[in-house]
Specification:
The chain is 38% helix and 24% strand. It has 622 residues and is α+β, with helices and mostly antiparallel strands. The protein folds into 5 domains: 45 residues, no CATH class; 84 residues, no CATH class; 98 residues, no CATH class; 266 residues, no CATH class; 84 residues. The strands form 6 sheets. The chain has a 10-stranded mixed sheet with strand order 13-10-9-8-11-12-14-15-18-19, sandwiched between helices. The protein has a 6-stranded antiparallel sheet with strand order 24-20-21-22-23-25, covered by helices on one side. It has a 3-stranded mixed sheet with strand order 1-4-5, with no helix packed on it. The longest helix has 35 residues. Bound molecules: zinc ion (ZN) (2 copies).
Length: 622
């Protein structure tokens, strides 16, 4: 950490803010910086006339800096480091260190997405970062960041330790080297086996003897050639992942910039427990154990007149905890939220923005709701931007966290007693706050689930890859791997979807007809998607952005989740072979199950039937 701090210091003195305003005064700025270090305020150094002339600029710059600092300090963008030792002295004051949740350039892209009317360069953005805000380091254990980035960073660290020249930053690494160069570097390593660590979702035993799912760092070891094959696949995935992180933030910015009067963008974020162990421990306690509350913060963006300023309004939906927030919960919440939004400003079209967890926001139920949004929720024209997984926490995460903290303080001070969601709602809605609180009862959630249950929902193939959807006509949506609100796809509030890659799906409630039909492109045959699986079935399922074969060992019908004992897949090119491996059982949601397959055959290494393999490749390609 010391190394990176030093390099920031160097960069800071090189690009002095005074220099930016007055235009190149190297020597003077050096003297100034020395004087400032000695504690003499800048105003005094500069002289009055200079300040008066530049006052407006300085004020604007300070305002922008303050805005960036506020943004970086929000819960979705950085975390307070928890330890007592995690503090440092800044200007004589002791402050707690915070660690950024993402690389600065991704946070910069996100800042621009949230503030579409601002133009701030990455350099200025970086300079606004206070020194106690440490840069994200994906290889350390103390952070809750994108698992895909973390796992590649851990592998890079392992490779670095055995002598490979590389960068710890996966983004810089893939930018610096081609696939061939990376492969050559790996082949040149003089080792037989490679040891590394990775984050994995595993069953852990709690102190009371019951088991639960948790994310832990697990040590692994692999033969060099197997490692190379696996690593090259991860590199390929990372290239796509990095492109999507940027593409989706850019889409949000583009959408907000051209959002017509009457259209509303809605950023949804469940405020919930984080995924890594450190945060699980932090977020447990009062809100985890004693008081179970579900919070869905939502921020709406709108214009009150054509070409007017973009405004926003925050809501926080409170509901009793339902163990797992699924699509039916989201539907119940929208039923309450949309009329409230309409009371703020007309809603003629609705553009959702969210993270992409398949259990809540990106699944067959949500696709169905989008296709039939006019009937179900009264707004016909809709679109959805799913931010790339691991980089999709939005402004709502901070709203949720703040509400919980404030409630926590109120409870501790003895001012109020909060035992359940209703108490929380009563307390919150009486607080003087800009946020509008809404309450959704368990009965309303159950009713919404009942309403959706009889619908012949079918999985849209390639759900894991979809990051964009647009309603085309009642019953039909178009989906794409990344969002696009360019002028060819979205002009004057109308979608024409002329860019490549949009695919249409018809999802209507007519049980007699197949409810999923891919209408474009016509010549492409989409394999049938099964919808029910039983214990003992062999299935192809996706896990951690990869597909595997496994046997279903338990079914949770309530949550639509399957416990799958996975086989290990060979990592070479061509038709893979499989073998059983200890401890590779985990729960996967229905959306991750691709298809039923015949049990693989063979002795130690087993193979799939040719038919099953081709079917899976088609589903995977979709
Ligand atoms: Zn990532
Ligand atoms: Zn486009």
């Amino acid at each position: 950490m010391a190394g990176s701090m030093k390099s920031i210091e160097v960069k800071r003195s090189k690009i002095n803010p005074i220099r930016l305003i007055s235009g190149g005064v190297d020597k003077r700025s050096r003297i100034h910086s020395r004087l400032r270090k000695a504690g003499i305020p800048r105003r005094q150094i500069e002289g009055k006339s200079f300040i008066i002339k530049k006052q407006r600029l300085v004020m604007e710059r300070d305002q922008m800096k303050e805005k960036i600092v506020t943004f970086l300090g929000e819960q979705d963008n950085s975390q307070m480091m928890p330890g007592k030792a995690d503090c440092m002295k800044v200007g004589g004051k002791v402050v707690q260190k915070r660690i950024l949740n993402d690389y600065l350039y991704n946070l910069h892209a996100k800042y621009l997405a949230e503030n579409p009317n601002e133009t701030v360069s990455l350099t200025v953005f970086n300079r606004a970062r206070p020194v106690n805000f440490l840069l994200a380091n994906f290889a350390t254990r103390k952070t809750c960041l994108c698992p895909q980035h973390q796992n590649l960073a851990l592998k890079l660290k392992a490779l670095h330790n055995i002598g490979m020249k590389n960068s710890k930053n996966p983004d810089s690494f893939i930018k610096a080297y081609s696939d061939e160069e990376i492969k050559k570097m790996l082949e040149d390593l003089e080792v037989q086996k490679i040891k590394y660590r990775e984050w994995a979702r595993v069953e852990v035993t709690k102190s009371d003897g019951t088991s639960t799912k948790a994310t832990r760092v697990i040590p692994r070891e692999m033969k060099k050639d197997e490692f190379i094959a696996m690593f090259m696949e991860k590199i390929e995935k990372m290239r796509g992942h990095v492109i999507r992180v940027k593409a989706q933030f850019d889409a949000v910015r583009e959408l907000k910039k051209k959002l017509p009067f009457g259209h509303t963008a809605l950023w949804l974020d469940f405020a919930e427990s984080h995924e890594c162990s450190e945060c699980e421990e932090i977020s447990s306690g009062y809100w985890g154990e004693k008081c179970k509350v579900t919070l869905l913060p939502a921020v709406m963006y709108y214009r009150t007149e054509p070409d007017g300023e973009l405004k926003h309004k925050a809501f926080n939906i409170i509901s009793p905890d339902h163990k797992n927030h699924n699509a039916a919960t989201v539907y119940a919440f929208l039923k309450v939220l949309i009329p409230k939004m309409k009371a703020v400003n007309p809603v003629t079209a609705l553009h959702y923005i969210s993270d992409s967890p398949t259990s809540q926001f990106r699944n067959k139920t949500i696709f169905y709701i989008l296709a039939n949004h006019g009937d179900l929720l009264g707004v016909e024209l809709v679109s959805w931007i799913w931010l790339e997984a691991g980089h999709g926490k939005g402004p709502g995460d901070g709203i949720g966290g703040t509400s919980k903290r404030m409630a926590d303080q109120a409870v501790r001070s003895g001012k109020v007693e909060i035992r359940d969601a209703e108490d929380f709602y009563n307390w919150a809605s009486n607080e003087d706050s800009k946020i509008t609180y809404l309450y959704v009862s368990k009965e309303e959630c159950d009713l919404a689930a009942e309403e959706l249950r009889p619908l012949p929902l079918k999985t849209v193939s390639g759900t894991m890859k979809i990051h964009a959807a647009v309603s085309v006509k009642p019953g039909t949506i178009a989906v794409r791997d990344t969002s696009c609100y360019c002028d060819k796809c979205f002009t004057n509030g109308v979608f024409s979807l002329e860019c490549e890659g949009w695919k249409q799906h018809t999802l209507v409630a007519e049980p007699s007809k197949p409810s999923v039909s891919a209408s474009a492109p016509v010549n492409e045959e989409v394999p049938e998607v099964h919808n029910s699986y039983e214990k003992g079935d062999f299935v192809a399922a996706t896990y951690d952005d990869e597909w595997y074969i496994g046997e279903i060992t338990a079914v949770d019908h309530e949550e639509d989740e399957f416990q799958v004992k996975f086989m290990e897949k060979s990592t070479g090119r061509g038709v893979p072979s499989f073998k059983w491996k200890e401890g590779s059982t985990c729960w996967v949601p229905l959306e991750n199950v691709m298809a039923k397959v015949k049990a693989p055959t063979g002795k130690r290494l087993q193979k799939l039937s040719k038919e099953d393999y081709e079917n899976i490749m088609k589903l995977w390609a979709n």
